[in-house]
Each structure stands twice: as structure tokens, then as C-alpha cells.
Design goal:
The protein contains five helices and seven strands; from the N terminus they run H-E-E-H-E-E-H-E-H-E-H-E. It has about 140 residues and is of the alpha/beta class. It has a five-stranded mixed sheet, with helices on both faces. Strands 3-4 form a two-stranded antiparallel sheet. A hairpin with a 2-residue loop joins strand 3 and strand 4. Bound molecules: zinc ion (ZN) (2 copies).
């Protein structure tokens, strides 16, 4: 999770500093953070693009991690995604269809539908409360 938090610091949208890494067979396959699509201006350059209270300029960290795998032709099926926050519903649906089998997240996000979709699809959801204790056992990168 500390690597995931490090990745999150690269986010270019300060409304959501989220980082994600996809791990399979004890290897980090890809990383992602919130940011604009490649080649387009970022929020920290041109400001947010707000619609209905959300900044829609960026791809989410989980989406960028999955897309990086597609870009490089790497299968993430059977892998685990570590995220600094709970995935939203769109990311949950992408996680399901990317074949990921486990989500380990730290911060919360108020999206009960996302949690319900993941659990109905059989994706394990593991919440780590990093605010309780930094010495709490963290699941090994064993996916
Ligand atoms: Zn933004
Ligand atoms: Zn999302």
C-alpha cells in the first residue's frame, strides 16, 4: 500500500489524489493515478472540468492501471488491484471485466453500489484502515 500511496502523489487532479497498482504472481504489473488522457492538458495546468460536482477531466487510477495493461498487452486476469481509495462504480465494473479477483483499498468512498457489484461478481474486497495503525499487518503481494 505504501507503493500505491507513492503512485497517488503523481495525480494531476488535486480533487482526488488516488493511486492504484495491479499485482499478479507477486509482481507489480502496472500502476495508475488520476490524470487526464495522454496528450491532453491536466487539471493542474488548466483547472478542473466540473460536471455535476465531479471533475470529469481525468481517468481514474484504477482505469489507468487497467488501460496500461491493455496498452502493453499484459493480462491482469487473476490479479489484485491495490488502491488508495475504494473504487467507484465505473471502476468496479472495469475491475470485474478485466478479470481482477481482489481489491485491496485504504480510504473509503461512499459508493455502496460499487461494493455490491464487486461482491456479486465474486471479487474479494479487503479494506485496510491505515489511520488505525501503521504497524497493522498488510496483506502480502500474493495475488
Ligand atoms: Zn480535476
Ligand atoms: Zn473510479
Amino acid at each position: 500500500m505504501s507503493i500505491t500511496q507513492q503512485v497517488a502523489t503523481r495525480s494531476t487532479c488535486d480533487r482526488a489524489q488516488v493511486g492504484a497498482i495491479i499485482v499478479k504472481d507477486r509482481r507489480i504489473l502496472t500502476t495508475g493515478y488520476n490524470g487526464a488522457p495522454a496528450g491532453l492538458p491536466h487539471c493542474d495546468e488548466v483547472g478542473h472540468l466540473m460536471i455535476d460536482g465531479h471533475c470529469v477531466r481525468t481517468l481514474h487510477a484504477e482505469q489507468n492501471a487497467i488501460l496500461q495493461a491493455a496498452l502493453h498487452g499484459v493480462s491482469v486476469a487473476g490479479g489484485t488491484v491495490y488502491v488508495t481509495h475504494q473504487p467507484c462504480l465505473t471502476c468496479a465494473k472495469m475491475i470485474i471485466n478485466a478479470g481482477l479477483v481482489r481489491v485491496v483499498y485504504a480510504g473509503t468512498y461512499p459508493d455502496a453500489n460499487a461494493r455490491a457489484f464487486l461482491s456479486q461478481a465474486g471479487v474479494a474486497l479487503v479494506h485496510i484502515d491505515l489511520s488505525v495503525s501503521q504497524s497493522a499487518p498488510v496483506p502480502a503481494l500474493d495475488a
